[in-house]
Structures are given as structure tokens and as C-alpha cells.
What we know:
The complex is a heterodimer of chains A (267) and B (296). Chain A has 267 residues and is an alpha+beta fold. Chain A is 24% helix and 24% strand. With 296 residues, chain B is of the alpha+beta class. In chain B, 23% of the residues lie in helices and 32% in strands. Chain B: Residues 37-171, 201-266 form the Exoribonuclease phosphorolytic domain. Chain B: One of its GO terms (molecular function) is RNA binding.
Amino acid sequence: MAMEMRLPVARKPLSESLGRESKKHLVVPGDTITTDTGFMRGHGTYMGEEKLIASVAGSVERVNKLICVKALKTRYNGEVGDIVVGRITEVQQKRWKVETNSRLDSVLLLSSMNLPGGELRRRSAEDELAMRGFLQEGDLISGVLVQVSPSLVKRQKTHFHDLPCGASVILGNNGFIWIYPTPEHKEEDAGGFIANLEPVSLADREVISRLRNCIVSLVTQRMMLYDTSILYCYEASLPHPIKDILKPEIMEEIVLETRQRLLEQEG
Amino acid sequence: MLGLVMSYQGKPISSQPLKITVLKEDLRVDGRGCEDYRCVDVETDVVSNTSGSARVKLGHTDILVGVKAEMGTPKLEKPNEGYLEFFVDCSANATPEFEGRGGDDLGTEIANTLYRIFNNKSSVDLKSLCISPREHCWILYVDVLLLECGGNLFDAISIAVKAALFNTRIPRVRVLEDEEGSKDIELSDDPYDCIRLSVENVPCIVTLCKIGYRHVVDATLQEEACSLASLLVSVTSKGVVTCMRKVGKGSLDPESIFEMMETGKRVGKVLHTSLQNILHKEESLGTKRQKVGFLG
């Protein structure tokens, strides 16, 4: 058994360790962004008393004539084409209520589910009665959910990643990240419906725990989450035992190494 | 480890978790074993206008304890002793459920548990708190403030209470009696002349949550919600159990209770040793210690 007690250490401000050349223009609600009236107002701004004022706390982004403020921590605002991971909270007639870290609960209709028997078939009354057969209160699915702020998930072409370490990751745009063991074979004839109820092996579970801790440490250091950053962080954490990744000094070391590798890759 | 799609009897779930861990092997979701604690940050003397204070951070759980020593009259049934009074405040900052009077139930439950574990002769030397029998004694008001709820409240609170009692400095007083028989209490001139409590026998609580077929120590919020029954064991540094309490809707059979108690004793002894080491280390740093406080 392990027990570690320590005296608290003052946190170093992140900007020191980053050494960023250009400082971001950060604003809080009520701050004046500019008094120049030639700009178009984007999200997070409003016009008041001849000046452009910020309505959320975040960094100012400018694209030609459009000024908007991107909030650092916000509830998820959905866009068409986003991938989200949700949690079922209620079973209703012909639909499920899903929690997605947004302002309102989302709705998943029975007609949009991939059911066995092929994708393009009419949903009948039997399907409605059998809803509990697919997803019911108390069902067990293999995997781990990590909840982070939506602003930390980078927008990419695909959000479903099969990492080479043996687990797969779905980075939902809403900040919910689903880590699960990679299925060995994909069943195409069931119309996309997967029912896998075997217990997970210890090796897979260790990989998933390690990935989960890596994601938590990236989030604590406010780094963007995408497949490359998660993978580099995983590789940087391999020398340490899984439970040590969450210790502050080891977390900083791993994330620093990840940051350096990412900078090398870009430059 | 398996995930869980949950709602309870068709009612919408508000904050129940998504995962349950099948702990056949000794591996939890964050990589810890079943008997591993998360990293603990302990700091004493954080509040200046108290006789003693401590702040403990256990993962996402943040507890602040302040001890104030005041003079009062001893209880009628124990005229030679002082006593401790506990008050627990669940701040609305900790979680939205504590808004308004929502945190009062949990606060009273924690305070009653603290009264129970200190309700014996050896935890704190109450006779040393007596100034003059039947007339004056020291009353230690121990106030616990829950700043953030991240699972395993009882353990963190007991660690913080022990650290705060270790940090408590009670001014030394003398009772002067003049010729008419009226008594006068004289405070010593030196502000550093204090008496300190011995916290060697102060117990700490170890919470063991039963999940599946095994039990875990230091459960996170999600693990706590997955467990139907838990056992709170209050253990001293020598491994003596002072009190035990079962919480939760589920049942525990006597064999599990015995196993959990043994684990609690084992874990409790290590907990006490670590806490004593860190408290002595902090004290030995003296004025060189960098106070982090709340803005660090």
C-alpha cells in the first residue's frame, strides 16, 4: 500500500514555463476590445457606447474584419458535423435523453440508432418495446469516460482514433472522451451494431488507465487534446508507474516532454 | 474495468457515474491499487486568528479546519476536564447540492461521527485542558469547513482535525487567589508561552468502500457512487480501533466486515506514520517554511 503526504508547493504560472513570444489578448466580461467601429462583431462581443465590449472571458481572435472572443471554459455549443460522446440519463418513448455537457440535454431518437438487421429499415413498434434490450439502466459497456472542458478538444478531421498502444479513443467535441479497448474485428454485417460483453484483460486495462491519467495531466496543464498529443504523452509516461502520473512533479515533467516533442514535430 | 449506463428505476440520474470497476486484479481506473491513497497536501497554520488550523487536500477534496480555544465552565459530569466541540460547515462552493440548507444533513452526520471517535478517555488528554476544577476549563471549538468535495470526506477531515490539533497553541494561564478568596486568571506575558496538546492517540478515520467483491480505500466520487456499502473505521496510531460505522444502503456480511477492519487497521497505521512525519518535518522548517495558503 502506498501513502504519500507532502507539504504544498506554490504553483508556477504557466506562461513562465511556456516562453511564448506573442502574448494572447485576454479579456474578461466588460472589457473594451477596441474603439474602432470598422469591425464586425462575432461571438462573445457586443456593441455598447461606441465601443466593442467582450461578454465572455477568453482570448480575442481576429480574422480580417471579424472580431470574436473565444471563451476558455464554457458549456459545449454544438455545431453541425461534431462528434459527441454522451451519457444516457432517461429512457422515453421512441428516444433517449442524453447528457452532453451542454446547456440543455440532448435527445437521441430511436430512428437514428444503428439496429441489428441493417441500417435502412423501418423502426416498428417492436423496436420501441425492445429499446430496453439495447440500452437499459444498469448496462455495462467496457471503457472509461473522462470529462474535460470542451475548449481543450482540438477540431480535427476525425475524432475516432485507434492508438497503437492497444486502446481506442473517441474525442467528443463536447469534452467527453471515451477510452475503450480496440475491438479485434469489426462486424460489418450487423449494420454497425456492436454487442461486446466480454471482460477486459489486465493488459488492456493498464493501457486504458495510463491513457486516462495522461489525458488528465494534459488537461491540468491546459494543453490541447488530439491524437498526437495524447500519444506522445503516453509514450513519455511509460517509464513511470501508472499511479505516479498524477503526482504534480511527474505530471509537469511528462507534459513538458510532450510539449517539446510537439514543437519539434511542427518545426 | 467496465463502464455503466445508469439510471435508477427510470428516474433521471443527476450525478451518478458512468463507470464501475471490477476489481478482480488490484487495478483501479487511475492506476492505483485497492489500498493506495491519492497524494495528500497538508499545511498547518493557515488561518492567523485561530489557536490552530490546518488545510488538507486529498485529490479534489479540500478541507480547512480551525481550532479556537476559549475559556468556559466544565461540564457538570466531568468537572476536572475541558472538552471539544465540533462544527462542520459544508460550504456551497463545494458542490451545488450544498446550496442553502442542503449541506446541513451531511454536516451534522460528520460532526456526530467526530464526537463519537473522540468520545473516549485516551484520544485527547482532556484533564490538561482544566484550569481550575468546576470553575474554569479550556473548550476547544473545532470548526471544519468543506471547500471542495472529491470523495473520501471522512478520511480527509480526520487528517485535518489531527493536524489542526497538533498545531493548536493554548496560552498558558495561572490562577491567582487573593486574600478574600476571589480568583483571578492571569495570562502569561510571553505570547509564545503556550501549552500544546499531545495528538499521539488522536484517531484517524479510514473509509473502506465495498465495490463488487473487493473493498477500496480512498474512493473518488465516482467510486463512492458505485459502492453500495462502506465501513468507516476510526484507528489510532497504534492500530487500535476506537469506533466503527457502516454507511450505505447495501449489506455487508460479517466476514467482509472483519476483512475490512483488518485492512483499516493496517492502512491506518501507515496513515498515522506519514502524517506524523510530515507534521514534524513542517515544524522543523520553522520560519524558513514558505507559506502557500490559498493563493498559491
